[in-house]
Write a structure and sequence with these properties.
seven-stranded mixed sheet; alpha/beta; globular; 468 residues; 30% helix; 14 helices
Length: 468
């Protein structure tokens, strides 16, 4: 007879009433859509596709430059057509209604001390990068690829690229030449942004020869960024300080970025995701499932070669700011990221099950000798978190910590199952199925024509569009 898992955390009424998810449920109730429990809400989200996804667009104020003719046009999979006729801009929703002097990004690395970038500074840098891209002939549908680390310049370059309607793709500079070529050569980039090197584990790694090899094989114009030497983008690339940032409206399914499968069975498979689908998915997940508020500072340890980088950038669609780190999480010791949590006053700490296991083995005591009172939630992904890992989080960070273990995929750049701030946390278990994700009909890749979509609009993009 199986033992019932122990409850490690349960939200009280005060906590649940202030969640973004509860506010959304109250808003739905005012419009006649009653859901007394999360389970009722989830069942509605996977049975009334038009009703649910249109509510996400309305609730979060998605700006359609051209309104959609319908929520769901063609219903067959593959080939479902979401929000036909609609035009919008993903980066516009990140940058709209921002105060110039408010902080957008806090960042640190093995090369740089903790610092902050305001919304005004981020917009200015994105505008200057975009002017440089435009001068190189980059326009709608062109591919801009980045061999860049997890730093603010990379976020700004992504906003600049997507604002033009160009298509973004990135790899971490610790990737070898072959891995990068296998990915970028498939999409024929117009521009390659690449750093001179990076620091990891206290050592500097020059990437000059690797970048030259990549450039020779993937083509496009090479723009260098001096990260190791601190010189920044090469002379003559950036536009003037007052360069205006364009945020072009594009069709709902216009490609936003290209991610890649692992490449364990041949070449990495290019996965194309669109402006509208990712916008709706991230508005849903980062607001309702991560429960991001204006005072929150969200961190997730990632590189630019993992979908969690794109996921973390999506937190900028919420009122929260984000925290970036580039480097080895174990240099000079496994205390490094916990030190960052204190220094940056992180409220949501995202990591991997492997990192938690390493801290347990070391052993590391995160709260010993440091103030982590701002830290109220911990997210874990990448692999299953053991029951011992669950217990370690609560033993070390306290009983008021909301731990959400998640599982998802690069193909949708989100989680199928994960955090729900209205539900308890049980030892060794993920909390619930995500809104709009129906595991009962998860065979989306093999769905026969005529069947309705089994997931939301984030997945439905024609890969050929990335090369048109």
């Amino acid at each position: 007879m199986s033992r019932k898992p122990r409850t490690l955390w349960e939200p009280d009424e005060r906590f649940t009433q202030r969640t973004r998810l509860r506010a959304y449920m109250r808003w739905l109730a005012q419009r006649g859509r009653q859901a007394a429990t999360y389970d009722e809400l989830w069942r509605w989200s996977v049975s009334d596709l038009e009703g649910f996804w249109s509510s996400i667009a309305e609730y979060f104020g998605v700006r359609f430059h051209e309104p959609p003719r319908a929520v769901l046009g063609r219903r067959s999979m593959p080939g479902a057509e979401w929000f036909p006729g609609a035009t919008l801009s993903y980066p516009e929703h990140i940058l709209r209604d921002r105060e110039d002097d408010a902080v957008a990004i806090r960042h640190a690395s093995e090369l740089r001390p903790l610092a902050a970038v305001t919304w005004g500074e981020l917009r200015t840098l994105a505008g200057r990068i975009q002017a440089g891209l435009r001068a190189l002939g980059v326009g709608r549908g062109d591919r801009v690829v980045a061999y860049m680390p997890n730093i603010p310049e990379t976020v700004a370059a992504f906003l600049a690229t997507s604002g033009l309607g160009a298509i973004w793709s990135s790899c971490s500079p610790d990737f070898g030449a072959r891995s990068v070529i296998d990915r970028f050569a498939q999409i024929e980039p117009k521009v390659l942004l690449a750093v001179d090197g990076y620091r990891y584990g206290g050592r500097d790694f020059d990437r000059g020869a690797v970048v030259a090899d990549i450039h020779a094989r993937v083509g496009g114009t090479l723009v260098r960024h001096g990260y190791l030497d601190g010189s920044g983008f090469e002379a003559g690339f950036l536009g003037p300080q007052d360069a205006e940032l364009e945020l072009a409206a594009v069709p709902f399914d216009h490609p936003l970025w290209v991610l890649y499968s692992s490449g364990t069975t041949g070449l990495p498979k290019a996965i194309v995701q669109g402006h509208g689908g990712i916008l709706l998915e991230q508005l849903k997940t980062q607001n309702l499932h991560l429960d991001m508020h204006a005072a929150d500072r969200a961190f997730w340890f990632t590189t630019t070669g993992w979908m969690m980088w794109n996921f973390l950038v999506g937190v900028l669609l919420t009122p929260a700011s984000i925290v970036l780190y580039d480097g080895n999480p174990a240099t000079p010791s496994l205390h490094r990221l916990w030190e960052l949590a204190e220094q940056a006053a992180i409220t949501c700490f995202g990591t991997s099950a492997a990192f938690v296991a390493a801290c347990m083995k070391a052993p590391i005591h995160p709260a010993e000798g440091r103030d982590l009172t701002t830290l109220h939630s911990v997210g874990v992904t990448g692999s299953p978190l053991s029951p011992e890992g669950f217990r370690w989080i609560y033993d070390e960070l306290g009983p008021d910590t909301w731990l959400f273990s998640t599982s998802g995929g690069t193909d949708v750049c989100t989680a199928f199952v994960g955090g729900v701030p209205l539900l308890p946390v049980h030892e060794g278990e993920l909390q619930a199925r995500s809104l709009g994700a129906d595991e009962r009909r998860a065979d989306v890749g093999s769905a026969a024509g005529g069947e309705q979509p089994r997931v939301g609009p984030e997945l439905v993009v024609d890969p050929a569009k990335a090369l048109r």
